[in-house]
Amino acid sequence: QVQVVESGGGLVQAGGSLRLSCAASGSIFSLNGMGWYRQAPGKQRELVARITSGGSTNYADSVKGRFTITRSNTENTVYLQMNSLKPEDTAVYYCNVDYASRYYSGLRSWGQGTQVTVSS
Description:
Elements: E1 2-7, E2 10-13, E3 18-26, E4 30-39, E5 46-51, E6 57-59, E7 67-72, E8 77-82, E9 91-100, E10 107-110, E11 114-119
Parallel strand pairs: 2-11
Antiparallel strand pairs: 1-3, 3-8, 4-5, 4-9, 5-6, 7-8, 9-10, 9-11
């Protein structure tokens, strides 16, 4: 079992910043890609940013230049620094991690989500 726990969400005014954290723990043999997704009310979950084990990143067009994803491989943690926040960034933000256990590869676990609300 792998636990994924997000933190750092909250309420912020437009133009402000938040930093989300996501820590993975449990039966992890190797940690591969880690990512942030978000889901706004009435909308589908969408990719925000992902980072590979080697540090390569990709971002949704809507957040490029404003959000930065980083990770700590020693702490099994991924971060999302969100700057210049807009009301349309309001959503529940979910973290996921791709990993291998001792016996299986190609596994993925999701966190429970953290609410980000940006007021205008």
